[in-house]
Amino acid sequence: MTAGGPLDWSLVAGTVPVLVRALGALGLAVLLFSRDRRWWTRLLPAALVLAALLSFLVPVVVDDWWQPFPDALPTDVVVWIGVAVLGVCLAFFRMPTLRLRGRAGALAAGACVVLLGLCEVNIHYDNYPTPRTLLGPQDTVGFKEAAGRAEPLVEVPPGKAVSEVWRAPDGLPAKGTVSKTPIPGTRSHFDARDAYVYLPPAYQASPRPPLPVLVLMAGQPGSPEDWITSGQLPDMMDDFAAAHAGLAPVVLVVDPLGGSFDNPLCMNSRLGDVQTYLAEDVPHWAATHLQVASGRAHRAISGLSNGGTCSLQMAVNAPGRYGSFVDISGQDEPTLGSREKTVDAAFGGDEKAFEKVNPLDVLARERFPDTSAVFVAGKDDSTYRPQALKAYAAAKKAGMKAALVELPGGHSWQVWRPGLQEHLGWIASRTGLTP
């Protein structure tokens, strides 16, 4: 636990998970113990069979029937969901053997077991590192208020970085602002959810430095607010700004999905014109609603998982818009689960139409000597790490200035959060913010 108060206690390490595990074990013991013969001969076996059946159905329903995302549920996640299901089943079957007070105790014990299962799933994904992140984005500011009025711009001579000519004025705020705002699909007609905009402290200065733009995307299922809460983006960017006299990239956390469980594959197809949205609508909106540096050299794109795949896609299919990208735990090609299913849904079975925009196919036939890339993969990510290696090799062969970084962890925020944080300096350098 930290000194920041209960809302800042860790949910993935330290005292809280230990306490939850102890309560969960106690809850299981309370639910399993009974002097009633019926419990041991009839009710407990029935509870165990039902829990096992429901737990078996979880991956069947999610991975085989529903298929909300292309990769299967990890085994340990399925196991801990099964533990939560077991707690519900045990509590339900204990009810006939107990009086009113005992039933209340069984419900409390069952809740502790469910909490244990949910806690372990959260630890696997590191999705909610603290209770505060469960509350959603905090301390947001209206976009018009945050953007303010137009200010004179600091002149940056050719060949110089912004940090080489910038001097922070007295009274510069210590923290940046986070705003929620629509970025409409004016040209693409893509129905994106509202974006989040981070403006660093230097954006509040006059004269205002011409800051680069980082376009950032979450995974699927997911939403833009994931980077604000689970990704702890505001703190990450404020820390970077504090070390650079208030300077940091402007960050647009945008939506390339349209819905948490949608997957239009970050391309122009029957599923929506997402490529046009990211290549035309988002840069145009930034240029007209913010005072930022213009041109591909001052614009980077990044994302995690599905968003990482999308960043690679945009770098090769819209190279005139994005000069650098960080692909965090992305795939080697966009997919709905299989090549056949993907091509059928997006292009009506037209394989050549898919190959025209599929990033590895593009990299095989074109060269990108003016694009810089970082591919980030979790060392324990058995599904996405091999794909990152494949995409990295293809990018190098196509002439990109590419690097591969492996971080401890699997397909989770344990990799995604530091995957961005550790490369903010790289992004700042590639986009002209720092030398």
Automatic annotation (TrEMBL):
Keyword Transmembrane in record: yes
InterPro entries for this protein: AB_hydrolase_fold, Esterase-like, Mycobacterial_A85_antigen
Domain of life (superkingdom): Bacteria
Pfam families: Esterase (PF00756)
Signal peptide from the UniProt entry: none
GO molecular function, one term: hydrolase activity
Keyword match Transmembrane: yes
SUPFAM superfamilies: alpha/beta-Hydrolases
Keywords: Hydrolase, Membrane, Transmembrane, Transmembrane helix
Segments crossing the lipid bilayer: 12-31, 43-62, 77-93, 105-125
This protein's name: S-formylglutathione hydrolase FrmB
Species this chain originates from: Streptomyces spectabilis
